[in-house]
Automatic annotation (TrEMBL), chain A:
This is Sugar ABC transporter ATP-binding protein. The keyword ATP-binding applies. NCBIfam families: PRK11650.1 (NF008653). Keywords: ATP-binding, Nucleotide-binding, Transport. GO terms for molecular function: ABC-type maltose transporter activity; ATP binding; ATP hydrolysis activity. GO terms for cellular component: ATP-binding cassette (ABC) transporter complex, substrate-binding subunit-containing; maltose transport complex. It holds the Pfam family ABC_tran. Residues 4-234 form the ABC transporter domain. Belongs to the ABC transporter superfamily.
UniProtKB/TrEMBL annotation, chain B:
It is a multi-pass membrane protein. PANTHER family: INNER MEMBRANE ABC TRANSPORTER PERMEASE PROTEIN YCJP (PTHR32243:SF18), MALTOSE TRANSPORT SYSTEM PERMEASE-RELATED (PTHR32243). It comes from Gluconobacter wancherniae NBRC 103581. The keyword Transmembrane helix applies. It is found in: Cell membrane. Pfam families: BPD_transp_1. The keyword Cell membrane applies. Residues 71-261 form the ABC transmembrane type-1 domain. The chain crosses the membrane at residues 12-33, 75-96, 108-128, 140-162, 183-206, 239-260. This is Mannitol ABC transporter permease. GO terms for cellular component: plasma membrane. Belongs to the binding-protein-dependent transport system permease family.
Length: 367, 275
């Protein structure tokens, strides 16, 4: 049982504010991912929770108890670092034993725990190796094992997979997810990789410049981004944005018009914005359809065939380049002209300040 | 072609290396030879490379002065000064390397700048301080002064070595429940041991060879080996045989010590430059 409560956390370095008031509650057993571009403050926030960085302002509560002034080692947390940060002078066994020894656990109990964890992580044969003799994946396992043996209330992961090659990263991602299911411990995971965020998280926290942009389940963020930043950040290739004007409303849907003159009804509420305002229409590459004749058209400039799917980079009449995802058997050629259809139920509309208009219907998986 | 060019360059570098090494080593070699010459042979022109060795200079040196007394003083001063310097420098370098503040860089530079001051510039104040503290001609007094003169270099070296230890490893220790002290002793020190060893070594050598303060702050009781050598350059004239014998005796222990630890020493002296 471990819950975390971040109450308006702030961090100031010298005169610059890095974390600008983050409030968040994390439920017991929840897998929370902090995601954002580099420099967004996600690692700093994690380190503040860990106790490796001071909290300039605000309160951090673990299980309802304020821990701002408690030493990192006594907050009941364990952390896995990006660089693994194993003790190079100790073998695998001693690496895992270090924390237990400091906590004063008797020898027999230590041995029992380490043996059990080593078995779970398939490290039994490496217990007497030094970290330098292990591969990247094995070091990663030791780092995780060192965290697990301490039986922490909360696991903290700081970009743990970014030093691994692609194949191993995929494998470790699955292992981590199943490990979390097995241990059921509250976990906070920092990454800039949205695949990790989407696949592992119960709850994603999108950060930018020290501010929380949106908190929600992976599919909530995908289907109902709160603003343009989240819309662009979640999803790959990123969402396309087209300039348009709000020209009216009908049965609570909004009517927008593109510069080309074509208009469409989009099922979003627009009551907050005056008619005639400039808006931005967002649509994901996978939702645009290539048709004989549609609302728009363009010239194919680049074709990327990924096997299972094809990415078309299409230049529109207004000079804008958009990306459209079609299936792997698409036969479009470079320089050919194609018609485009934008299904209105997949369109997002953003006001000038970047905030999304609320959708009339929530996606069933993102309720 | 490339091979030939490379080969020629390598030969040139090798020759240069040997040349410099011999040039640096020659005075020590000559001192060593002169120690086994009689006083007449020692000053003869042309200098004699081949001669009948004699131990008379050594005999006289041992007769005139208590070599062991000086050696023990030097060892005591060097070990105490190095030990205390390390004890002070480890926490200082730790905080500078891992918890730098705005002024860390300038503090380091300022500390180093004190080394650029000629010692003689502070001779009078230090002498008066030592006299008033009753530390003149004591091993402790000399050790304190040696320790303080070497402290900037010791901190600098440790700082550089500590900086090579990745901070996340120490943070992992802190997450594992280590106190600052445990973090320093159980994680940092074992990792930085080679660096600490070469720092200690350099400090020992600097103390061993320190002459200015030895000559000015000690007379008989606490006189170290550098004073022992100086005592053989007498106003009645130089006796090169005895002077050489005394010098050889003075540098022999540290030379042997340095020989065995040359690997550490090279690493220590080229710190930062070679990874």
């Amino acid at each position: 049982m471990a819950t975390l409560e971040l109450k308006n956390l702030r961090k100031t370095y010298l005169t610059e504010e890095i974390i600008k008031g983050v409030s968040l509650s994390i439920e017991d057993r929840e897998f929370v991912v902090f995601v954002g571009p580099s420099g967004c403050g996600k690692s700093t926030l994690l380190r503040m929770i860990a106790g490796l960085e001071d909290i300039s302002n605000g309160d951090l509560l673990i299980d309802g108890q304020r821990v701002n002034d408690i030493e990192p080692g006594h907050r009941g947390l364990a952390m896995v670092f990006q660089s693994y940060a194993l003790y190079p002078h100790m073998n695998v066994y001693k690496n895992m034993e270090f924390g237990l020894k400091l906590a004063g656990m008797p020898e027999a109990e230590r041995r029992e725990k380490i043996t059990a964890v080593a078995k779970t992580l398939q490290l039994e044969t490496y217990l007497h190796h030094k970290p330098g003799q292990l591969s990247g994946g094995q070091r990663q396992r030791v780092a995780i094992g060192r965290a697990i043996v301490r039986n922490p209330k909360v696991f903290l992961f700081d970009e743990p997979l970014s030093n691994l090659d692609a194949a191993l990263r995929g494998q470790m991602r699955v292992e981590l997810a199943s490990l979390h299911r097995k241990l059921g411990a509250t976990t906070i995971y920092v990454t800039h990789d949205q695949v990790e965020a989407m696949t592992m998280a119960d709850k994603i926290v999108v950060l930018q410049k020290g501010v929380v942009e949106q908190v929600g389940s992976p599919l909530e963020l995908y289907h109902h981004p709160r603003n343009m930043f989240v819309a662009k950040f979640i999803g790959s290739p990123p969402m396309n944005f087209l300039p348009a004007t709000l020209i009216g409303r009908e049965h609570s849907s909004s009517i927008i018009e593109f510069a080309s003159g074509s208009s469409m009804h989009v099922p979003v509420y627009s009551s907050a914005v005056a008619e005639g305002s400039k808006v931005t229409v967002g649509i994901r590459p996978e939702h645009i359809e290539v048709v004989e004749a549609g609302e728009g058209s363009g010239k194919v400039e680049v074709v990327e065939r990924l096997g299972a799917l094809t990415l078309l980079h299409i230049r529109l009449a207004n000079g804008q380049l958009i990306v459209v995802q079609t299936d792997g058997s698409d036969t479009s050629e470079i320089d050919s002209r194609v018609g485009l259809h934008l299904p209105s139920e997949h369109c997002h509309i953003f006001a000038e300040d970047g905030l999304a208009f609320e959708a009339l219907n929530r996606h069933p998986l993102a309720a | 072609m490339a091979f030939k060019v490379n080969c020629g360059k390598q030969i040139a570098v090798t020759l240069l290396g040997w040349g410099v090494a011999l040039w640096v080593f020659f005075p020590i070699f000559w001192m060593f030879l002169t120690g086994f010459k009689s006083e007449v042979q020692a000053v003869s022109t042309p200098p004699q490379l081949f001669f009948k060795p004699t131990l008379s200079s050594y005999a006289e040196v041992f007769e005139r002065a208590n070599y062991w007394h000086f050696t023990i003083n030097t060892v005591l001063v060097s070990v105490i000064a190095t030990g205390v310097a390390l004890a002070l420098a480890v926490p200082a370098a730790y905080s500078m390397a891992f918890m730098p503040s705005k002024r860390t860089r300038s503090t380091l530079l300022w500390m180093l700048s004190t080394r650029m001051l000629p010692s003689v510039g502070v001779l009078v104040p230090i002498y008066l301080l030592a006299r008033n503290a009753h530390l003149l001609d004591t091993v402790l007094g000399l050790a304190i002064v040696d320790m303080l003169t070497n402290l900037p270099i010791v901190i600098w070296m440790l700082f550089t070595f500590f900086r090579e230890v990745p901070a996340p490893i120490l943070e992992a220790g802190r997450m594992d429940g280590a106190s600052r002290w445990q973090e320093m002793t159980m994680v940092l020190l074992p990792l930085a041991l080679p660096g600490i060893a070469s720092t200690a070594l350099l400090s020992l050598i600097l103390c061993w060879n320190e002459a200015f303060w030895s000559l000015n702050l000690t007379s008989s009781n606490a006189a170290p080996l550098t004073a022992f050598i100086a005592s053989f350059s007498s106003p009645e004239g130089l006796f090169f045989g005895k002077l050489s014998a005394a010098s050889t005796l003075a540098v022999a222990p540290i030379l042997v010590f340095g020989w065995f630890s040359q690997k550490q020493l090279v690493r220590g002296l080229t710190f930062g430059a070679v990874k």
